[in-house]
Design brief:
Length: 320
């Protein structure tokens, strides 16, 4: 807030926002531990999604750790348009409040369900925005660990914003060892083996095989989920799906999936290079960006200035 000090000079003061600074409207959605409500800043009239968490419920269900992870990761990931931004946090006696970017377009999953599938142009655009965001997250030392179309929201421009960082992992310092010349190596992509996460998290259909076999999640685990998402956008269903979680896991570790007839060949090649059991052999981000499927994509800030393509379902070529 701009104020005038004792000498008559203007000064900027940081005032902590609180519940009374917002007016609350309808509920946007409900999670297992939270309610997300449309809120308006009374002063600026800017609209937000305000996530309200019941403190007693969080403590009773032992979810304090996850609430803190979400806050800490979001506070680390504030400079990218592909991440739901956390503007303010505050609390009252009963609840915790997270003031977030409002995503008026809802979940990517909902849009996909309405469309049944996405055509190649839409898949390329949304796939590119998701990958650009994963790249940023990984460079900031965050593994999401639960990427799926439900956790990809859409803003009013129909651009993506990744959410739900409650099960993310913040990697310890990624500083590289000095090489013999005493200079840091030039290639910043070959970061040594990162600290591994040993708890089971995620959603059955998108869980990577290394998490199931070695209880290890690494950056490449997010790229497995990315492969599942590309498959799902074009096919209308995730690659690994069975009657129950156990059967889904069995399919994942056996790499037991099929492409529907007419699945585009270039996208198939990309998916096959992502759905690779050994995380070390999975296509790394820089190679994904250069894959033929993403030909013509301008990575970085320009990707976020583009108009979203008109939504169209994929029409497979007629069979001979
Ligand atoms: P769970 O906690 O069970 O995993 P969740 O992660 O979906 O569920 P929340 O993140 O609390 O829970 O979100 C609840 C619902 O609110 C979601 O279904 C989503 O559609 C909606 N929502 C969440 N964040 C936003 C946002 N920034 N803008 C608009 N809607 C949102």
């Amino acid at each position: 807030r701009q104020e005038i000090d004792a000498n008559g000079k203007p000064v900027a003061r940081y005032i902590k926002k609180g519940v009374r600074d917002f007016s609350f409207a309808h509920t946007l959605g409900e999670g297992s531990y939270s309610t997300v409500v449309l809120g308006t800043d009374r002063q600026t009239l800017k609209e937000y999604a305000i996530k309200i968490l019941d403190k007693r419920h969080i403590i009773k269900e032992k979810k304090v750790k996850y609430v803190n992870i979400e806050k800490d990761t979001l506070n680390r990931l504030t400079e990218h348009p592909g991440i739901v931004r956390l503007y303010y946090t505050f609390q009252d006696e009963r609840s915790l409040y997270f003031v977030l970017d409002l995503c008026k377009g809802g979940e990517l999953l909902g849009v996909l369900k309405r469309m049944t599938t996405f055509d190649e142009e839409c898949t390329r655009f949304y796939g590119a925005q998701i990958l650009d965001t994963i790249d940023y997250m990984h460079k900031r030392g965050v593994i999401h660990r639960d990427l799926k179309p439900e956790n990809v929201l859409l803003d009013s421009q129909m651009h993506i914003k990744i959410t739900d960082f409650g099960t993310a992992k913040i990697l310890k310092s990624q500083r590289k060892p000095q090489n013999s010349s005493g200079m840091p190596p030039l290639d910043a992509t070959d970061i040594p083996e990162e600290e591994r996460a040993s708890s089971f998290v995620g959603t059955a259909e998108y869980v990577s095989p290394e998490l199931l076999t070695d209880k290890n999640a690494c950056k490449a685990s997010d790229l497995w989920a990315f492969g599942c998402i590309i498959f799902q956008l074009l096919a209308g269903r995730p690659p690994f799906k069975a009657g129950n979680e156990y059967q889904t896991f069995q399919k994942i570790v056996a790499l037991d999936y099929d492409f529907p007839a007419g699945f585009p060949a270039v996208a198939r090649d990309l998916v096959e290079r992502l759905l690779v059991l050994d995380p070390a052999r999975r296509l790394p981000i820089e190679h994904i960006k250069n894959h033929e499927f993403f030909q013509g994509i301008a990575w970085g800030p320009d990707l976020w200035k583009r108009k979203a393509p008109r939504l169209k379902a994929y029409v497979p070529p007629p069979r001979e």
